[in-house]
Amino acid sequence: MINRELIRIKVVQLTYAYYQNGNKNIESAEKELLFSLSKAYDLYNYLLALIVAITRESRRFLEVAQAKAKREGTPMPSQKFVDNRFALQLEENKMLNEFLEDKKINWDDEPEFLKKIFTQIADSQIYKEYMASTDDDYASDRELWRKIYRTLIQENTDLDAMLEEKSLYWNDDKEVVDTFVIKTIKRFEEKNQSRQEILPEWDNEEDKEYARKLFRATIMNADEYQRYMSEASRNWDFSRLAYMDIVIMQIAIAEMMTFPSIPVSVTINEYVEIAKLYSTPRSGGYINGMLDAIARHLIHTGKLLKSFKNEDL
Questions:
Q1: CB atoms < 10 A from the CB of 168, how many?
Q2: Which residues contact residue 85 at a Cβ distance below 8 angstroms, ignoring those fewer than 6 apart?
Q3: Residue 311: predicted pLDDT
């Protein structure tokens, strides 16, 4: 699950923090980086567990509604939502349950939030259309939860506030982690039952090594990389740069210099997007021009053994 987009963001955050605090211990900072990444995986599982928790909350609502209908002699309410095949499959998922048990993570201490979000779901047009539909198959059940997640969970200020209280790490992680949850929902297949795989924490050891090497290269070669900035950008006004911009460019140079297989254009594009999120409104365009100039200077002087694509020359 932990991909390079998330790693780059975390390296930016941890590098900035490294320079801001007084204790510049690279060993402890590297441990903090890996711990921060692991917390993103905790959030991924926690958000998958939210689907299960909402389903369980819906059962309680249904039991009350059934008791009322029985008492008053009115038609029994539909069980379609609580019998949603995708949600039931997720509830039984072995990988998810083993992780939640190991980490002691659950939604038991958030009853009011669960009541509120289930009520929001039950009042939504998505829910009403699903309950009224004659479609009765796994694909429809799974699609319901994809829609619910995208419209009522992905953009939910109450949830965001609650997650921020639970972990400072989760405040900046949710936007990226949401994409992994939606990807997971779409990947589920009924035939896999409880053995359906959710995303692993790391896809491979290469990504974990990428995180370590990128962070260490950024810190260990800081003076060298900042000198490259000065050499390549004599016509640029450094006073226009926010401190975060310097950190982002330093990391981008570290990636260019340390990972031969990553194209220059990919590196520039990735860090321009990060600048748009974490720095000033003008930073994206400014950093794009700066990194382009720096990369061309490093290639021209033989310090960077890469090249731009032909169309970029």
A1: 10
A2: 137, 138, 141, 142, 190
A3: 41
Residue corresponding to tokens 């992680």: 173
Q: SS3 for 236?
A: coil
Nearest alpha-carbon partner for 65 in 76, 81, 56: 76
C-alpha distances (whole Å) from 292 to each of 97, 116, 214, 269, 286 are 47, 49, 20, 10, 10
- Coil, strand or helix at 169: helix
pTM here is 0.91
Assess contact for 16 and 247: CB atoms under 8 A.
yes
Buried b (16+ CB within 10 A) or exposed e, 212-228: eebbbbbbebbeebeeb
Cα separation of 95 and 116, whole Å? 28
Render pLDDT for 120-157 as a digit per residue (tens, 0 to 9).
999 999 999 999 999 999 999 999 999 999 999 999 99
Interacting residues of 252 by C-beta distance below 8 A, sequence separation 6+: 267, 268, 270, 271, 287, 291
Crossing angle for the helix pair 264-278 and 4-20, to the nearest 10 degrees: 60
Give the number of C-alpha atoms closer than 13 A to the C-alpha of residue 10, restricted to the C-beta side: 33
Q: What is the DSSP letter of 191?
A: G
What are 175-231's pLDDT values in tens digits? 999 999 999 999 999 999 999 999 999 988 899 999 999 999 999 999 999 888 888
Tokens of 25: 């211990």
- Tell me how long the chain is: 313
Per residue in 217-253, pLDDT (tens digit) is 999 999 999 888 888 766 666 666 788 999 999 999 9
Whether residue 251 contacts residue 243, with contact meaning beta carbons closer than 8 Å, is answered with no
Alpha helices in 233-282 (DSSP H): 243-258, 264-278
